[in-house]
Specification:
Elements: E1 14-15, E2 26-28, E3 37-42, H1 45-55, E4 59-72, E5 76-90, E6 97-112, E7 139-141, E8 145-147
Parallel strand pairs: 6-7
Antiparallel strand pairs: 1-2, 2-8, 3-4, 4-5, 5-6
């Protein structure tokens, strides 16, 4: 179970749901305050072990994220923050572990699966249009729970 830096859940905002990846940090969108909800997450030993196994890392000394999650429109959510990690990867030439520190800002939009905004724009038949400058597509969720843990990669 993933928790905030103090090792405890923040009460009603966070709850546990079905795990969708190595980390599971769910938030109930229905009760997010309009001014946003701050999150300070630090991975526990079992979280780091799961990330190491999932990504095939040599080590993961530290993994944390700080974020603020806001209600977006009537039923969606928007998260912004920074992921920080100190990890070891295997060198592709020597196979030796190489340590790296990562600090990466992120933004994510979460939309309920029945939102009309989740429908892709119509394209001419047999044509695929990819805009490399476009924003990332929204994360789609069922019910009222979003999983910030799914953003770890």
């Amino acid at each position: 179970m993933s928790r905030g830096e103090d090792g405890r859940s923040d009460g009603d905002i966070e709850s546990q749901a079905a795990q969708t990846g190595p980390l599971n940090y769910t938030i109930d969108v229905g009760i997010l305050p309009k001014k946003g909800h701050p999150i300070a997450f630090k991975a526990l030993d079992e979280d780091r072990e799961a990330l190491i196994a999932f990504y095939g890392l040599a080590s993961l000394e530290d993994f944390r994220f700080d974020a603020k999650v806001f209600r977006w429109r009537a039923r969606g959510a928007r998260a912004e923050g920074t992921i920080r990690a100190t990890l070891g990867q295997f060198c592709v030439v020597t196979g030796e572990p190489v340590t790296e520190t990562v600090e990466e800002p992120f933004e994510a939009l979460f939309l309920p699966s029945d939102s009309r905004l989740t429908k892709p724009p119509r394209q001419p038949e047999n044509e695929l249009v990819i805009d490399v400058e476009a924003e990332d597509p929204p994360e789609i969720f069922e019910g009222k729970l979003i999983n910030l843990g799914a953003l770890e990669c």
